[in-house]
Amino acid sequence: MNQDAYNHKSLQSNDGQAANGMSVMAMGASTGCNTVYGSTPPSNPHPYPWMNSLFQDGSTVSWLLGESLILQHARRSVAPERLCNSLLEAPETGDVFTEQTHWDLTRLNDTLMTEQEIRELPKVWIVGGDGALGDIGFQNLSKVILQNRPNVNGIMLDTQVYSNTGGQNSDSSTMLGGYDMNQFGRQSQGKLIEKKNVAEIFTSGHGSPFIAQVSMANSARLYKSMLDGLEYRGTSFFQCYTTCQPEHGVGDNMSAEQAKLVRDCRGMPEFVFDPQAGELSQECFDLKGNPSIKRDWWEASYSDKTKYNYTVAHWAITEARFRKHLKLIKEEEVPEFIHMDDILVSISQDDIVNRRIFDINHRSYVPDFGVYFKAEVDGKFRYYSVSRQMVLFAVERRKAWRMLQSKAGIENLDYAAQRALLKKVDSGEIAAEDLRSKPAQLLQAELDAISGS
User: How far is the C-alpha of 390 from the C-alpha of 322, rounded, in Å?
Assistant: First the structure.
């Protein structure tokens, strides 16, 4: 005990430790951009035990670091402190050092630690991109999340692409494809599979971890959720949208702004899943921070106060990686195209899965670059036609947002109206030609019927 006391007090091999010499955290990073910009010698910013490993191994290595910290914390901090307290207090309280006390101290683990002792336990952070944690290393991360250890936390820097290796699609990539080293065009039909929502996956079937999907778009919410996750007696995981400036084609100073845009367009909504709030999903899910929380899309406004639906297409014009999916058109050419809002009324995710969107005779048919939207860029109105993949991306993100709303107990009347309308069209009660010619009016009629107005 004297030796341990000396080691804690006098040996300071690293900066950034607590006053007693202990490291307050450790980090296991998956090799990638985060280790390149965060550990280039001689300016390593990690004043604590830190290591990086192969893409898929970072989660497992961090878990093992966490187990070793629990063991050392028990042996060199908790047990000696409890023993000292027992010896000092025994003369006054008459408490006897029992066989059970001896058993607990010699076999102590986090199960028997108090809340205060868990707070003092050094924490381990898993850090990696969507490739390392959501794709090649997903099984490793899933295993770790399921353990729900009290001192393991993970953060996924979601760039939606394998950034460090050239820009290949990851499971977290959008449906647009077209990144570096990926095919895009008429023959490949783009990426027709949905984005893997890693954070959402961990809210079900993985025990009771604390989960948040947050970003620098709302820094206060980001830090608050991290503090709550650190206080939680279990594993916490954070999925954060993170721009990759060269791959996304945005300025170095635009990270927070791009995070706001992708949140507002439903590309990556914010949510917090706190398992301490209850045992129903609507009790645990919190969608605060997203705009127009009960609607399909955020109802934004142009400078002339005209309102419009802010979709993923509006976000896409701000990042160069999506340029192949957008074509500028003249205002006088607009009548030749279908408005984005109108065509979205006609399509469900099920139509994409069953490939009806390629059938020219079906209500959900999407002509490639036959759809347009209006945007305000640098104070001027511009009109863009979009690829078929852009339309499908909007449908997929709308469906993902609706799923989140339902989990949080939020009723979306837009979905109820669309579902009722498409049922009438598919049954022949409303002609498909009428749906194509006046989708907004028909949808509004269903909304009025549902709301009783």
Answer: 9
Take residue 409 and report the two structure tokens written for it.
Answer: 């107990």
Digit-coded pLDDT (tens) for 379-410: 999 999 999 999 999 999 999 999 999 999 99
Over residues 16-43, the pLDDT tens digits come to: 556 555 678 888 888 777 777 766 666 6
- For residues 318 and 323, give the distance between their C-alpha atoms in angstroms, rounded to a whole number: 9
What is the H or E stretch that residue 38 is in? helix 33-38
Tell the residue number behind the tokens 């721009």, with chain if given: 243
Q: Where are the domains of the chain?
A: 298-451
> Cα(123)–Cα(152) distance, rounded to whole angstroms?
6
Give the type of residue at 192: L
Q: Helix, strand, or coil here: 49?
A: coil
Phi and psi dihedrals of 174, rounded to 5? -75, 170
Q: Which residues are CB-contacts of 405 (< 8 A; sequence separation ≥ 6)? A: 287, 293, 294, 411, 412
Alpha carbon distance 158, 270 (integer Å):
13
Full-model pTM? 0.90
Reduced to 3 states (helix: H, G, I; strand: E, B; else coil), residue 448 is helix
> What is the SS3 assignment for 241?
strand
Question: What value does the mean pLDDT take over residues 420-443?
Answer: 95
Where do the DSSP E strands lie in 321-368? 326-329, 338-339
Chain centroid to CA 182: how far?
23
pLDDT of 143 over the 80 cut: yes
Name the band, by pLDDT with cuts 50, 70 and 90, for residue 12.
very low
- Phi first, then psi: what are they for 433, rounded to 5°? -65, -35
Closest CA to 271 of 359, 142, 400, 163: 400
Q: Which amino acid is at 363?
A: R
d(CA 415, CA 164): 39
Find residue 25's DSSP bridge partners: 123
